[in-house]
Design brief:
two-stranded antiparallel sheet, alpha/beta, 12 strands, 8-stranded mixed β-sheet, single chain, about 25% strand, Rossmann fold
Length: about 250
């Protein structure tokens, strides 16, 4: 009975954790603790956020939205606006609720979509728990469903938009982002990206760095690569700046 309640009715327990400056993280799903720990306890991004004004964020691979919430709780005197993009159906309830919080309503927006080739209206997404969902199958037992591909020209919140910071955690779809959404990069100041060596470009971190350099971005800081958990490959984190950015 307890296992059934935890699996199917976890959101009704209304678990919440207080943050600094009177913000709260609501944990609506039973794997939300992993995402919360990564962002708020392990402080994965703490050393990769530029010490500059940030008011406009594009949060790609938002998962439960904790990255955007973390920055807002750290900078309470700034009204941060965030577009949270996440394809996972598992995260839908949490992101919808977050966008409706009284302290965030009107500033945090949720788009259920995947970063892919915008020429394709929809793309397969492989749902997995613990922040492991992606556009790529990792085993023959993986199940997928189709999700909307993130558009550029038809989405008002993205068209001709610039961002102070783009956060990108796409579980291997980094090359799709750099290839198909370079206009977003060129109109934004900073990029913090978690890279995965199995991205579809095939060249690991060095290929991503080369491509970013070609479009005018410089990597300011990067973490040592680490072995991926649950599959072969390496992962890492870096902060890059668009040297051609103009307000």
């Amino acid at each position: 009975m307890l296992a059934h309640l935890r699996l199917d009715y976890f959101h009704e327990f209304h678990h919440s954790i207080p943050l600094s400056n009177n913000y709260w993280a609501h944990l609506w799903e039973n794997d939300a603790y992993d995402s919360f720990s990564e962002i708020f306890i392990q402080q994965e991004y703490a050393d990769f956020i530029p010490d500059e004004p940030i008011t406009n964020i594009l949060d790609l691979g938002a998962h439960y939205g904790y990255f955007s919430l973390w920055i807002q709780s750290k900078r309470p005197h700034v009204e941060i606006h965030s577009i949270m993009v996440e394809p996972s159906q598992r995260c839908q309830r949490s992101l919808q609720k977050m966008a409706q919080y009284p302290k965030l309503e009107g500033r945090f927006q949720y788009l259920q979509a995947a970063v892919g080739d915008p020429k394709e209206e929809r793309t397969p997404f492989f749902e997995r728990p613990f922040m492991a969902g992606s556009l790529f199958s990792s085993s023959s037992e993986d199940c997928s469903y189709e999700v909307k591909t993130l558009p550029l020209t038809s989405e008002p919140s993205l068209k001709d938009q610039s961002f102070d910071l783009i956060k990108c955690d796409l579980e291997g779809a980094e090359w799709e982002f750099i290839t198909h959404y370079s206009s977003l990069l060129k109109n934004s100041k900073f990029l913090v990206m978690e890279w995965h060596s199995w991205h579809s470009g095939g060249g690991g971190f060095s290929q991503i760095e080369k491509r970013l350099t070609e479009i005018g971005c410089k990597i300011l800081k990067s973490s040592p690569s680490q072995k991926a958990v649950g599959r072969d490959g390496e992962v890492g984190l870096f902060l890059a700046q668009n040297l051609n950015y103009q307000n």
